[in-house]
Give the backbone structure.
Amino acid sequence: MNKKTYALLAFGLCLLAFAFISGCGKYATQYSAPVIIERFPVAGAGGVGTNETMWIKFSKSMDTTGLTSIDSLASKIKFSSDMTATVTFYPDATPEVIWSDDDTKMTFTNIFFVANAGSRIHYQASMEAFQDRNGLYLAESTDLWNFTLSGLCVVSRSPTNDSSVPNSPMTLVATFDNSVSTGTFTAGLGISHTAGAPIPSSPSIAWSNSNKTVSIGNITWEASPPKVVDITYEATDIYGNVTRNGQLFKFNLQ
């Protein structure tokens, strides 16, 4: 066999090997079961808001037949034994299951959770719940989402935490992530509070922004600076989420 023939034969064998390897790769991809490659909230996340939009991303395009509504999704998932929160839907909002164009990402939106802070969300796949376009199923009891909730929480406040402010008449303003059942709201002094009692002793309280924002008005403090104002709160939102000993304000008097 001359060198030219040998070179052609070797080249042909390389082409055959490449085709074989490529074919095996495609075969393996086609006939391997789907798995979850990404999710939000991430596994083990803590302090997640009670109204997050959740999504999962699969390794392959999925068969979305019968998985395009909340009712159909509910029949495909199960609660793990350590699930401690309940789920309901936004008033006057339509919950949705939304798939990406390539059917690899499923988004679950317009939901919220009723729970105390630290409650766990733990969803798993039921048997033969999610299948790819080749009919291969995600493994039963695969974790879909597993995280803990923050409960009702303050999303903005003025003064901001750890800021320094003069001891003059002030209005404190805090905004929560959900509407508050105002009759459940109470505020108290935290353990690091050193500024004495507010003057007047019963400050005015006003609610706005669909009862998400509370204003505590015209306060001065029985204190000579520097002192720490530390105010905690207890409240329940309109969905039943409860927070006790939450941080409402913490700032320094100049």
In short: The chain has a mean pLDDT of 85. Helices lie at 3-30, 70-74.
